[in-house]
Specification:
The complex is a heterodimer of chains A (about 130) and B (about 600). With about 130 residues, chain A is α/β, with parallel strands linked by helices. Chain A has helices at about 10-25, 35-45, 60-70, 90-95, 110-125; strands at about 5, 25-30, 50, 80-85, 100-105. Chain A has 5 helices and 5 strands; from the N terminus they run E-H-E-H-E-H-E-H-E-H. The chains are: A alpha/beta (about 130), B alpha/beta (about 600).
Chain lengths: ~130, ~600
């Protein structure tokens, strides 16, 4: 069973994402800001990370993504950026920071599920 | 693995590809900023309004179906998310706010999109969780409403994309058509249902109102714009119009102005406006609107206002039902122009007079007289309305009624005669109560005439009196007067007799000449009784009349004599006997036509 780390400062969005992922059979762990995201990633070794891009404290999701990518033990864990109504420029920045995909809020569960499965499949093939 | 997924293929809920670059950046003027914010605000609120309604309906349905508690909890969370987003949009999309005054309007909009997006995610999130649970756990039939909410959320996400200071605003996709199942009754039926016309260019706006009102049994009509609304009002009885103010082409104010100008304000109007349009509301009320509601529509307020509007309509209808049968009263309510404008119609007019009024009132005294007359007139009025007639007037001891207008009644003559016979039938019951008091039986004289007349308001603007004018009416009144002289209870003219479609027992009483009318008029009595003696009396009378008209006075007197003694005949036979005796004494007194006394 794949384990997914959800990083989200908004409690309701965190609940929604976690509920959805559990309904789809994933293990879910969570973090609510950048530093705790890095700590949880190191401790839980998730198979995939959903990262909200607008996090409070210690930089935003991009900073957290860069920090995670800097940890050799986490390898190339796939990261999907979550964003509400981002501008095109920002999306480019997200990819530059090391995200593998972007999901815009409001989530389309089916679409998000597809992205997760695709990234997990690609990861297991390596 | 970086950049593996290609964007822009599956846009799904996210709307247009967010990576599309804006074409050019233009600084927006203050009015343009205002317009942009208010336009998007209006669109979002309308959608949220629909979402809140669906989710409330869903919650009520679910509470009855009793799914597991946590399913209800999710429904409540979705409902709360919708309410909260609605409140957020209503509050934040305000051009007056400080953050929209600054230089970086674009940044403010981005923040706004972000905040709305996050909150919208709560809503769609719970909606999708509920859909997933329905899929696997099957609690009830909630999928359709959930899908509807999801479709609204999807449109909402697309509309949110228009909130950009620069670049092409992504074209809003047309709202998906909604097929709505009829809802079970979820709201108490505490108002008499009415015909409600919903005028709104936005399909969600119409749908929300329909969903709120249909469960109460109201008959809902919809119009997409002002022109359609005016056409519907023309063709359809409408009690209350819910009129959206902001519409393309012809807005709500234009509709009211047109109705006012054409004097067609026939229904109650409740104006529905955004908060920004509150100034126009005052103008609407000046133009004849009864009330207004602001968006987002509060369900309780909507019902209260609609109820009060419908109540006013009912009161007015009651007023009209004093004079018109209920069906006609309702028609009058919707097409008051029928009352105002005079028109020519084929009608039957009935005058009924209570005999011996002055004599009886002298004995009874004023208080008792009023009581007595009211008792009699109430019974007679009921008879008129029961036979689909219009009660034109009651003056003292005389009642006037008509048939054939305002709506056409091809059988107006039959209805008038049936009503007259029915009036006479009511007398025994009235007499049981009143004969001991007034000391004699009540008797009526009823005259009916038919023909063309001018129908409409024969009163004034202040004192409406729907009635008829013309020779047909004058003659009817004279025929009623003739009943006194001819000692008949019910007389009709040959013009009425000719128009009868059903079989009545009629017998010719006399040929008369009326002042101002050239041609001779034949008066007939209408008989209710068909027993052998009555038929014999009629036959003998007809013979006596012919003899009299041929100046065979002696033979006429013989026939009449046996009529009076053998059959104890009364009425016209007595009158004809005295005419015959006059002529026996002075043959020069004979006239071919009897002069009908003037009024």
């Amino acid at each position: 069973m794949a384990k997914i780390l959800v990083v989200e400062d908004d409690a309701t969005n965190l609940e929604i994402a976690s509920r959805f992922l559990r309904l789809r059979g994933y293990d879910v762990v969570s973090a609510h800001d950048g530093p705790s995201a890095v700590a949880q990633a190191l401790a839980e070794k998730p198979d995939l990370i959903l990262m909200d891009m607008k996090l409070p404290h210690a930089g935003d999701g991009q900073a957290a993504t860069r920090a995670i990518r800097a940890q050799p033990s986490l390898g190339s864990v796939p990261i999907i950026a979550l964003t509400a109504q981002a501008m095109p420029v920002e999306i480019d920045d997200m990819f530059a920071a090391g995200c593998d995909d972007v999901e815009t809020k409001p989530f389309n569960f089916a679409q998000l599920h597809g992205k997760i499965e695709k990234l997990l499949a690609a990861r297991s093939q390596r | 693995m970086t950049g593996l997924t290609v964007h822009g293929v599956d846009q799904g809920l996210a709307g247009p590809d967010p990576r599309a670059r804006p074409q050019e950046v233009v600084a927006l003027s203050a009015p343009a900023r205002r317009d942009l914010l208010l336009a998007v605000r209006r669109e979002l609120l309308e959608l949220l309004q629909a979402i809140v309604t669906y989710s409330e309906v869903l919650l009520r349905d679910a509470e009855e179906a009793q799914p597991p508690d946590d399913f209800l909890t999710d429904l409540r969370k979705m409902n709360a998310a919708a309410q909260s987003l609605l409140g957020f949009v209503a509050e934040t999309f305000d051009p007056q706010r400080a953050e929209f005054q600054g230089d970086d309007f674009d940044a403010s909009l981005r923040r706004l999109r972000h905040d709305v997006g996050n909150r919208l995610n709560h809503l769609t999130g719970f909606c999708q969780i509920l859909l997933l649970r329905e899929e696997t756990e099957h609690f009830g039939s909630f999928t359709a409403d959930l899908e509807r909410i999801r479709a609204c959320c999807q449109t909402l996400a697309q509309r949110l994309q228009r909130l950009r200071a620069a670049g092409p605003a992504p074209e809003a996709e047309p709202a998906p058509p909604l097929s709505l199942p009829t809802l079970p009754t979820v709201f108490p039926r505490d108002i008499d249902p009415g015909d409600v016309l919903i005028v709104d260019d936005n399909p969600y706006g119409r749908d929300v109102l329909r969903r709120l009102l249909e469960p109460q049994g109201h008959r809902i009509h919809e119009a997409e714009d002002g022109e359609q609304a005016l056409a519907t009002l023309q063709s359809q009885p409408v009690d209350v119009m819910l009129l959206d103010l902001l519409m393309p082409r012809m807005n709500g104010l234009d509709v009211l102005q047109r109705l006012q100008a054409d004097n067609r304000m026939t229904c109650s109007v409740i104006v529905i406006s955004g908060l920004e349009e509150i100034d126009s509301v005052a103008r609407c009320i000046e133009l004849g609107a009864d009330d207004y509601l602001t968006k987002p529509i509060d369900r309780v307020l909507l019902q209260a206002r609609l109820r009060s509007s419908l109540l006013k309509r009912r009161l007015r209808q009651r007023e009209l039902e004093q004079f018109f049968p209920p069906k006609v009263a309702r028609q009058m309510l919707h097409r008051p122009e029928l009352l105002e404008q005079g028109r020519d119609a084929e009608i039957s007019v009935l005058f009924a007079d209570v005999r011996g009024f002055s004599r009886i009132s002298e004995d009874l005294g004023p208080a008792k007289t009023v009581q007595w007359l009211r008792a009699v007139m109430e019974v007679l009025s009921d008879v008129v309305l029961r036979h689909q007639g219009v009660l034109v007037d009651i003056i003292g001891d005389e009642l006037m009624a008509m048939w054939g207008a305002p709506e056409e009644q091809p059988d107006h003559a039959d209805l008038a005669c049936q009503a007259a016979l029915d009036m006479l039938d009511q007398l025994p019951a009235l007499n049981r109560d009143w004969q001991p008091i007034i000391g004699e039986p009540i008797s009526l004289g009823i005259g009916i005439n038919s023909g063309p007349a001018r129908v409409g308001n024969t009163g004034t603007r202040r004192r409406l009196k729907y009635g008829a004018l013309g020779d047909t009416v004058n003659l009817a009144s004279r025929v009623q007067g003739a009943t006194k002289y001819l000692m008949a209870r019910l007389l009709i003219t040959d013009d009425t007799r000719r128009r009868l479609r059903q079989k009545f027992h009629v017998g010719r009483v006399a040929n008369v000449q009326a002042v101002n009318i050239d041609r001779p008029i034949t008066l007939y009595e209408v008989h209710a009784r068909t027993d052998r003696a009555s038929v014999a009396v009629r036959r003998l009378y007809a013979r006596a009349l012919r003899l009299y008209e041929n100046r065979r006075f002696k033979e006429a007197a013989e026939v009449l004599g046996s009529l009076l003694t053998q059959y104890g005949a009364q009425g016209p036979a007595v009158w004809l006997m005295s005419r015959t005796m006059d002529c026996l004494a002075q043959p020069g007194k004979w006239r071919k036509l009897w002069d009908l006394p003037g009024k």
